[in-house]
Write a structure and sequence with these properties.
The complex is a heterodimer of chains A (661) and B (274).
Chain A: H1 2-9, E1 33-35, H2 42-47, H3 55-60, E2 65-68, E3 76-79, E4 88-91, E5 94-95, E6 116-122, E7 135-140, E8 149-158, E9 163-173, E10 177-188, E11 204-215, E12 221-235, E13 243-259, E14 265-282, E15 294-312, E16 318-338, E17 345-367, E18 372-387, H4 390-397, E19 407-423, E20 426-437, H5 441-445, E21 449-451, E22 456-459, E23 467-480, E24 483-502, E25 515-538, E26 541-554, E27 567-575, E28 579-588, E29 606-617, E30 623-630, E31 652-660
Parallel strand pairs in A: 4-7, 22-25
Antiparallel strand pairs in A: 1-6, 2-3, 4-5, 6-7, 8-9, 8-31, 9-10, 10-11, 11-12, 12-13, 13-14, 14-15, 15-16, 16-17, 17-18, 18-19, 19-20, 20-23, 21-22, 23-24, 24-25, 25-26, 26-27, 27-28, 28-29, 29-30, 30-31
Chain B: H1 2-21, E1 37-44, E2 49-55, E3 62-72, E4 83-92, E5 97-98, E6 102-108, E7 113-120, E8 128-137, E9 143-150, E10 160-164, E11 172-179, E12 186-197, E13 210-217, E14 222-223, E15 228-234, E16 237-244, E17 249-257, E18 263-273
Antiparallel strand pairs in B: 1-2, 2-3, 3-7, 4-5, 4-8, 6-7, 8-9, 10-11, 11-12, 12-16, 13-14, 13-17, 15-16, 17-18
The chains are: A mainly beta (661), B mainly beta (274).
Chain lengths: 661, 274
């Protein structure tokens, strides 16, 4: 099953290829799959060093992923400088879209790492939908079939934000069903920065509950029911003029799997799913002198979809798969402003937009021989976007756009990925791809969306076409004794690069805004960079180093926005029988070249040190204590992608205690 | 096996397609025309006719469209014959009397109504409004006069503004809002009528002006794009487009120029709140 997913996703993962082949594999750590449930793995310590880390913190450990932070909660993952609509962020292959017009609720903020089995991340997959910057799929936890009844209780404290976290998990197995239930609760105050000052509006509270039921009664059929409920409240966004009083998601799905034996067809998976997100921005916690006008900005995002995948057994070296995929997404966002003693002002910032997408994917993993493999995939999506209500249409008519008719768009994603296993320790692969993506709802129909980074109101453009990229990538991996090295170099040539362009004719809506930008397609842009990793492992000691860098310019020769500077993470882990200790250094170089038209400012170099340890004891190591110090030297720093130069947390002591049974 | 295959493909595609099929989104039904109510009913003494005065709103300060139905006094049947109707509104303030702008009454054979307009320039709190309606039946040759006595109210939001020309201190102008009556977020037809007070009894419309508009939200300090300046469409009516990007309090600022482009007044406005 696991292999099925991996093959289908065509992940850029060393582990995925040719497990049947006789040649000994280069067993390089896969830096594109974060596993959460493999406690014995040294790399697991690297990814999931603190069990109460946010999902995004684990994501950030993937070399190609960086986070845009606007507060202390729900940072937005970007992949090699690709963000928002350029990256496909899914949960178990389900499409889902944040309900916040200001990207304050990326999909990853609605799942807990506690409830995840793995995060799969790759630059070449189009299994879960079209996108230029690859895909990030969060795979929810699976039942542990080894135990009849099991579970855990955990609780933790972190000093920097007086944060209290706790979680419980329960699971059972019997002849008919397996089930798991888990819940996480978090409550954090404002954190203190490296100078000991409290950073206002960095607090958050959230609760997450998930339940899964899987049938066991047949080897041929499997039925799964999934439900996730997530609710965050009182969430501060220090870098933005507003906070979030409520962010709520309901995510549910029903999956049917059919397994075949003795035929070339191996498996069919059919899933229907839905998710409903409600997100409420407000400024009621902000003092009067910071708020020129009080406002509420609720948003809704509802997605319903289904997909079917077919997976065939390997025939003459070919492993074919086919996926048909469809979903409908509805989004609406409102803004109501309350001037003193006057009529409230109301408008839609997402004017009742409905988008339907159907797609078809064909993929083949072709193991030509022991040395060569050739993966390729072809995906086509057809989309239909429209504004549902006359009220919504009237908004865009103000700019003279004809929005009576729906906008139909077809997009192609074509990929080839040859691989050459040069010898037992050295492997090369290449990716050549042509990718297209749809404009996002904001880019197509957004109405005066304020961007706090550059201080501009953004207006959508229904006349936008698809953005496309030609991708060339080369990766090498080498394993020699206790050393493993991996290096990927990539280059993307983008056409119709979508970016906000100032329209001096338009007057701003937001009080104090610098102006108005309309989404336009620039002729072209390019993006290039690399990810590198070096791992040294002997016995129970590992030293993991990862490095990433992205650079790119648009056709006006200006640097692209939100490209993180060179960043290094170096983690050293010693693991004993029932303990481990892991010092770590993380840092980035300074960033001088910035996109001024996007309100970016240069950021200084920074480096912090962390020390983590864990200890297990009791019968069957039932008890576990995790403890650590993050930012040991209380360094005052902010990252280039910290909006508003909001400082990151200072020294943080944490301790987590858990009991497993 | 094959069946399952087909079934799943079909199911998935149908699920997606079901939503694409509904491409013909029905346009929202147009807002129903405001209901007309009977505002007054008087006998036109001498003509054997009865006149019913209908309007969509009770008489208010501003541009009032009026709908007159003429009936036989005895039978009560609607008379659709060859009639001439003249209206003469008069404000009696005690010390003085004056009229206000009107539009000639014309017969609409579809609705069997006589349609005209009166722009009341002040509310009844200042005196008494009477509307002298003279009806001549061209068939019988009889003429009768009906006198309506209305309470004219000041509307919640000002619908009429007046100013004295910067070029000629004796010229007083009146601008009345005709549309939007039911403003929406988005594009709105913006129609006004401009009259000049030539004398107490003579209030002609002004066809040779230039009007420039700039809608603004005073509490937000912003405007809206792509507005179209009203141009003269006949009978002193000027029609353009004003765009509202949100609900709330909008102020449509106007600059009024004469036929040569000289500014008559540059700080006139009408407020529209919704």
């Amino acid at each position: 099953m696991n292999r099925f997913i991996l093959i289908l996703t065509l992940l850029y993962s060393m582990n995925t290829l040719g497990q049947d082949s006789t040649m000994q594999q280069v067993e390089l750590a896969s830096f594109n799959v974060v596993e959460f449930d493999n406690d014995s793995d040294l790399l697991d310590k690297y990814y999931n060093s603190n069990r109460f880390n946010l999902t995004e913190s684990a994501l950030e450990r993937i070399p190609a992923v960086s986070l845009i932070s606007r507060g202390n909660f729900a940072p937005e993952p970007i992949y090699r400088g690709f963000s928002a609509g350029q990256v496909n962020l899914t949960i178990d292959g389900m499409h889902m879209f944040g309900a916040c017009t200001d990207k304050m609720d990326p999909v990853s903020s609605y799942v807990e790492s506690n409830n995840l089995k793995a995060i799969e991340c790759g630059s070449s997959s189009s299994e879960n939908g079209a996108g230029l910057g690859g895909s990030i799929n969060m795979e929810t936890a699976k039942p542990n079939l080894e135990k009849k009844f099991y579970g855990h209780v955990a609780s933790g404290y972190q000093s920097v934000s007086s944060g209290f976290n706790s979680s419980v998990g329960l699971g059972f197995n019997n002849d008919l069903f397996s089930g798991i239930f888990s819940s996480t609760f978090r409550m954090n105050d404002n954190y203190k920065d490296g100078n000991g000052n409290e950073v206002n509006y960095t607090q958050f509270s959230k609760v997450n509950a998930s339940a899964k039921l899987v049938s066991n009664f047949s080897d041929f059929h499997r039925i799964k029911v999934d439900f996730i409920y997530d609710r965050a409240w009182d969430v501060g966004y220090a870098a933005l003029p507003m906070d979030v009083s409520l962010a709520q998601a309901k995510i549910y799905s029903l999956t049917y799997e059919r397994f075949f034996f003795g035929s070339s067809l191996k498996e069919i998976e059919f899933k229907v799913y839905g998710n409903n997100i409600y997100h409420e921005m407000d400024d009621s916690k902000r003092p009067d002198d910071e708020v020129p006008i009080r406002m509420d900005m609720p948003g809704w995002s509802d997605t319903y979809g289904a997909y079917t995948t077919f997976n065939w057994r390997k025939i003459a070296g070919h492993s074919f798969s086919l996926k048909a995929d469809g979903f409908v997404h509805f989004s609406r966002a409102e803004m109501t402003m309350y001037p003193n003693d006057e009529a409230p002002m109301f408008m839609l910032t997402w004017p009742d937009v409905k988008r339907g997408v159907i797609g078809l994917l064909f993929a083949d993993q072709w193991d030509i021989n022991d040395r060569f493999a050739f993966n390729y995939s072809l995906r086509y999506d057809f989309s239909n976007s429209r504004i549902e209500s006359e009220f919504g249409k009237n908004h865009l008519r103000v700019f003279g756009y004809d929005v009576d008719d729906p906008i139909n768009m077809g997009i192609w994603n074509i990929l080839v990925k040859p691989e050459w296993r040069v010898n037992e320790s050295f492997k090369l692969n290449w990716i050549a791809a042509y990718k297209e993506r749809l404009p996002t709802v904001s880019e197509q129909y957004g109405f005066y969306l304020f961007n706090a980074q550059d201080g501009y109101d953004y207006i959508g453009n229904p006349e936008l076409g698809q953005e496309s990229a030609l991708q060339a990538e080369m990766s090498a991996s080498l394993k020699k004794g206790s050393f493993e090295f991996g290096l990927s170099y990539f280059y993307y040539h983008l056409n119709n690069y979508i970016v906000g362009i100032i329209d001096p004719e338009l007057s701003t809506m937001t009080i104090g805004a610098n102006g108005v930008k309309i989404y336009e397609a620039m002729d072209h842009a390019y993006m290039t960079g690399f990810e590198g990793s070096a791992i040294w492992t002997i016995k129970n000691i590992s030293w993991v180093n990862v490095l990433n860098f992205t650079y790119g310019k648009d056709s006006e020769n200006e640097i692209l926005p939100q490209l993180p500077p060179l960043k290094l993470t170096s983690t050293f882990t010693i693991k004993g029988k029932n303990w481990d200790i892991s010092p770590e250094v993380v840092g980035a170089i300074k960033k001088d070249e910035v996109r001024e038209s996007f309100g970016e400012t240069s950021s200084p170099a920074w480096m912090i040190a962390n020390l983590r340890a864990s200890y297990s004891f009791g019968k069957n190591t039932a008890w576990n204590i995790q403890t650590g110090v993050e930012n040991i030297f209380n360094t005052y720093y902010y990252e280039f992608l910290s909006w508003g130069e909001i400082p990151r947390p200072g020294t943080n002591f944490y301790v987590n205690v858990s009991f497993n049974f | 096996m094959k069946q399952i295959f087909t079934y799943f493909i079909a199911a998935t595609l149908l699920f997606g397609l079901a939503n694409c099929d509904k491409e013909t989104t029905e346009p929202d039904p147009p807002a129903p025309a405001p209901e007309k109510t009977l505002v007054g009913e008087e006998f036109a003494i001498g003509s054997g006719l009865k006149i019913q005065y209908h309007a969509t709103e009770d008489p208010f300060v501003g541009y009032n469209k009026i709908y007159l139905t003429v009936k036989d006094s005895v039978t009560g049947n609607v008379v659709s014959g060859d009639l001439n109707i003249m209206i003469m509104p008069m404000m009696d303030m005690g010390m003085m009397m004056h009229s206000c702008p009107t539009e000639a009454v014309e017969y609409n054979s579809d609705t069997k109504e006589f349609i005209g307009a009166i722009t009341y320039v002040m509310p009844s709190t200042a005196g008494t409004w009477t509307i002298t309606t003279t009806v001549t039946d061209n068939g019988t040759g009889l003429t009768g006069v009906a006198v309506f006595d209305f309470e004219v109210v000041e509307p919640e939001e000002v619908q009429l503004t007046s100013f004295i020309s910067d070029l000629d201190p004796t010229a007083k102008f009146f601008i009345s809002l005709i549309t939007p009556k039911d403003p929406q977020v988005g594009e709105n037809d913006f129609e006004i009528i401009i009259n000049r007070k030539a004398s107490m009894m003579d209030w002609p419309y002004e066809p040779y002006l230039t009007v420039e508009i700039d809608p603004q939200m005073p509490s937000m300090n912003h405007g809206s794009p792509n507005n179209v300046n009203p141009t003269h469409i006949g009978d002193g009516h000027y029609k353009g487009v004003t765009n509202f990007t949100m609900t709330g309090w909008w102020r449509v600022n106007m600059v009024i120029k004469d036929g040569e482009g000289n500014i008559i007044k540059d700080d006139v406005y009408l407020d529209i709140t919704f």
